[in-house]
Amino acid sequence: VEQSYVMIKPDGVQRGLVGEIITRFEKKGFVLKGLKLFQCPQELAEEHYKDLKSKSFFPKLIEYITSGPVVCMAWEGVGVVLAARKLIGSTNPLQAEPGTIRGDLAVQTGRNVIHGSDSPDNGQREIGLWFNEVELC
Ligand code: ATP
Ligand code: MG
């Protein structure tokens, strides 16, 4: 079954949005397979976002993701990767539709509250990167 790595970024945790975000995924009907609060080390943030290494915003992105604890989640279900991206909304929260997490809860691209894997392959890759096997059900 398809799985997506979804992560509430430090601003989402700090702003108290964890419960609301988990509720949206639960209500949609996906199955939670892993969940933890975690202070991300720099090297892991860089590995996670390695495809963006050449971007000018990369150092700021790493600073952002490591600025406080994140909530790491593995969600499972048919079509979960694309569906999670739809629940999350566009990268720029000002372009994200109302009703999406970013559309309802954020205004800045550099503080956009949540991550979701962009393909099933990356879902597997990222879950392997952020979780130990014993942490997954
Ligand atoms: P994510 O991978 O975090 O789910 P995404 O897939 O919507 O987001 P990506 O293009 O993968 O978008 O960018 C990863 C993250 O890098 C974005 O979520 C955002 O936090 C940050 N980012 C992307 N573009 C910019 C930008 N132009 N300026 C600042 N930060 C950016
Ligand atoms: Mg992405």
Give a short summary of the structure.
With 137 residues, this protein is of the alpha+beta class. Helices cover 41% and strands 18% of the residues. It has seven helices and four strands; from the N terminus they run βααβααβααβα.
Textual characterization of the structure:
By secondary structure, the protein is of the alpha+beta class. It has a single domain, classed as 2-Layer Sandwich (Alpha-Beta Plaits). Helix content is 41%, strand content 18%. It has helices at 10-14, 18-28, 42-48, 58-65, 80-88, 101-105, 120-130, and strands spanning 3-8, 31-38, 70-76, 114-116. The chain has a 4-stranded antiparallel beta sheet. It is globular. The two termini are 13 Å apart. The model has no long low-confidence stretch (mean pLDDT 98). The site of adenosine-5'-triphosphate has 10 residues, from strand 4. Adenosine-5'-triphosphate (ATP) is lined by residues 52, 57, 61, 91, 109-110, 112, 115-116, 118.
What is the class in the CATH system? Answer: Alpha Beta
Q: What percentage of the residues does DSSP assign to strands (E)? A: 15-25%
Poorly predicted spans = none
- Whole-number mean pLDDT: 98
CATH architecture: 2-Layer Sandwich
Structural class: alpha+beta
The ordered string of helix (H) and strand (E) elements is EHHEHHEHHEH
- What is the overall shape? globular
Bound molecules: adenosine-5'-triphosphate, magnesium ion
Q: How many structural units, i.e. domains? A: 1
Rg, Å, rounded:
14 Å
Q: What is the fold-level CATH name, i.e. the topology?
A: Alpha-Beta Plaits
Number of strands: 4
CATH superfamily: Nucleoside diphosphate kinase-like domain
| Number of H/I helices | 7
Give the termini distance in whole angstroms.
13 Å
The share of residues in helices is 40-55%
Largest sheet: 4 strands, antiparallel
Kindly report the spatial arrangement of strands forming the biggest sheet. 2-3-1-4
